[in-house]
Secreted protein (Maricaulis maris), 190 residues
Amino acid sequence: MRLSCLVLLSFVLAACSPAAPPADSSFFASLSQLCGQAFEGRVVSDDPRDADWAEQRLVMHVRECSAGQIRIPLHVGEDRSRTWVITREAAGLQLKHDHRHEDGSEDVLSQYGGSTIVPPTERRAEFPADQFSRMLFDREGIAVSMANVWSMTLTETSFTYGLDRPDRHFAAEFDLTNPVDAPPPPWGAE
């Protein structure tokens, strides 16, 4: 009886104790502080496969923020098809890539990404490709992408989006010290 009372008391106390903040709280909170702002960037990796992007104006717009999700459209020149969607999960963060056509319809290569395995720090989060993404890449004949790990790094002066896998590194860095005018909404936005 005494053991049952102690177990019951520990459950009651646990239920009354304030919940620990999510593992992503620092990174998510830091990123949320940029809400409403847009920033110009540039490709900082030197892979010849990135030449098309390197020649374009890159603008990220921290457009929509809620307690559980941040949506960041990425404009590459006039192309407004890409949005990074960062969502809070119980154990960390999830990154998805929402790709749309100009008419707003979803691209066949959309909603790929992954969830953090290592808890995000205040400055960095890494997202290995999840099962959905690996199946999508396999179905679309781009199996090499099944090893993708996306990253986001946030400092006082810059935001860097990266993609790594064997024999591939891409990085785009955005200057947080000089906000720019917000671009038009991404394709498919309401």
About this structure: The longest helix spans residues 2-16.
